[in-house]
Design goal:
Elements (H helix, E strand, L loop, with lengths): L25 E6 L7 E5 L4 E4 L7 E2 L9 E7 L7 E7 L4 E9 L7 E3 L8 E6 L7 E5 L2 E5 L7 E2 L8 E7 L4 E6 L4 E5 L1 H11 L1
Antiparallel strand pairs: 1-2, 2-3, 3-4, 5-6, 6-7, 7-8, 9-10, 10-11, 11-12, 13-14, 14-15
Amino acid sequence: QGEDFEEISGDLTQGGKTGDVSYGTLSTISESPLKFGYIYVGSDDGLIHFTKDGGESWTKISDKLPQNYWVRKIIASQHKKERVLAILNGVTWDNFKALVYCSEDYGKTWKQIGKNLPDECVNFILEDPENEQIVYLATDAGVYISTDMGETFSAFSNLPPVAVHALAIQEKHKDLIVGTHGRSIYKIQLEPVHQSLEYADS
């Protein structure tokens, strides 16, 4: 319960960079809810590592992704144990494109998703707990939703054009909670989204 900690890895970054803003640290971690001991970590200098044994050994899985970009968020899927989603942020390299990727084989191969997104840095990615086809994104200008597993995204809701840094789902009430940068917290009802997809499939 946090009283004692055990080191389960060596340095999983490129070793640290000095300058006006020093960096070189792990920035995101995600443990699979479907398989014990499956853990992903990403660094702000572009590396993603994966362990299948709770940290006994680690494998770098980011060689086929754009290099040196900040791994803003990585999530082990709650729908398939082989699936992992990652977002990169290239702002420190003057790249403001939306860099969103999905792997269906534990990061051995990656596919870029959300290619229709505007040039906005992505800050957060979230799966819908009920429908694996639904993915939510938070960017520097708002929230986007995909209903086809990331093939396409659409602007979601009538939020003000503001940077969104965090998303969470209150599953009991089916609300998407949106945390913005200095413009309050918003709540979006998700039941109409689920109902519209059920109607479309019927």
